[in-house]
């Protein structure tokens, strides 16, 4: 075993791995927030609660219906996304003509309600969700031990993020989505059902949160507070990357996870605040964020 800057290699790379895993969740959650804000102009404060719902749906599918991890990886995001579609149609769609603050207050209230319902039903002690048999164990790389499931989380998050970026930025569907946010009347004149597109976009953003929840379930205990503990950091990631910037959310999420991991090695006391310090510095220099555009 060798050392780097006086730190054993196993400890350094272990913390970098933890940072990369955290960065995977930061990236996929901030991506969902960026999709919703960038295309709908809604600050979805319920995103953390919807992430928690994804983990709970996976747990319920396993314990109540005997449906394992791999089907849940598809079913849970679909179910959470369907919940988001209903939410958008019944409540959020009524607020588009008002200031952003109304959407933020509504989704903040919804987050508290959702978390309260799950807390009353399941408590706060946390529920276990096992790693699928195919991903148990790990690989000895010489300088560190790499658990298979952790590697899967990083790869799955990266693939989902890049596919989402490609669809929104490089396809005709993404062009329609971006155009609908700029001039919905004109897009509707071409026969595009803009209200349906907006609803499905919100549902997709929520489904991304549900997908992240399923990925997180075997790593963290499934509990009602898991989203509340994460959403503030994710909002900071979105602000640093630039509100509404798809690529900014992805790159910033992974990068800040690594920065957080390095901070835990060299200055552990600052690991809980380093992202917020970076956010303040970025806002002082570039208020629109690193990849955002000034409005």
Arithmetic mean of pLDDT = 88
Supply the number of structural domains.
1
Q: How many helices in DSSP terms?
A: 11
Question: Which series of helices and strands comes N to C?
Answer: EEHHHHEEHHHHHHH
Shape: globular
Q: How much helix is in the residues?
A: 55-70%
Strand order, main sheet: write it out: 1-2
Uncertain runs are none
Distance between the termini: 51 Å
The SS-based structural class is mainly alpha
| Share of residues in strands | under 5%
Largest sheet: 2 strands, antiparallel
Number of strands: 4
- CA radius of gyration is 19 Å
Overview of this structure, please?
The protein has 295 residues and is mostly helical. The protein has one domain. 70% of the residues lie in helices and 3% in strands. It has helices spanning 9-40, 47-65, 69-90, 100-122, 148-170, 172-182, 184-189, 194-216, 228-241, 246-266, 274-285, and strands at 3-4, 7-8, 138-140, 145-147. The strands form two sheets. A two-stranded antiparallel sheet has the order 1-2. It is globular.
Can you summarize this structure?
This protein has 295 residues and is mostly helical. It has helices spanning 9-40, 47-65, 69-90, 100-122, 148-170, 172-182, 184-189, 194-216, 228-241, 246-266, 274-285, and strands at residues 3-4, 7-8, 138-140, 145-147.
Any descriptors?
mainly alpha, 4 strands, 295 residues, two-stranded antiparallel ribbon, 3% strand
